Amino acid sequence: MYKKFENKIGIKFKNWHLLRTAFVHRSYLNEHKESGFTHNERLEFLGDAVLELIVTEYLYSHYPNPEGELTNWRSALVKGEMLAKISRELDIGTYLFLSRGEESSGGREKDYLLANAFEALIGVIYLEFGYKKTQKFIEKFLLVHLQEILETGSHIDSKSRLQEIAQEKAGVTPSYKLLHEEGPDHNKIFTMGAHIGDRLVGKGEGSSKQIAEQKAAEDALKRLKW
To answer: Does the annotation mark 198 as catalytic?
Structure first.
């Protein structure tokens, strides 16, 4: 079942049960209680920590820049939007185990589900093969995007950029309001709106209000024509 995926990422797994777990969303288990599967949240927890360490070590070793700059670069690399982009490149959405509701609502294309599965995959690689192989995987598929990030300026905090522009052009500070939230307490998705005055100028969603605000600011920066 996973041979095509193994060929794509260049890793041959020994434990396909563990690999499958990286793709199991909690919602699937609600409809398949007798499947014997385990959801991917523990692997995601592990993979998130491993990912941050490897990216941090890479930036520290390769760039003499100040801590603040390196922090912004790391944030741009490990944010959900970037991880989801790589998941799409690897066709991870194809392998997700989702409930019928998640499936029908486009779950295979949702950024946060793809990002979580990517982090869970990193957890699997780390458990099976250790630090060095995980490091090579992250360098091959994630760190290659660093130059693109620096060239496009996507490492610059979107809320700060929007605030600077709004204050310069309109003399006001943007505000952020909750537009919608859905999902259980352990897996909520928030939709935030960026406002300049009474005008809604951008929308964004994320697993926290802070992430959703950043995405709303990014959306506003794309849409606004001063």
So the answer is: no
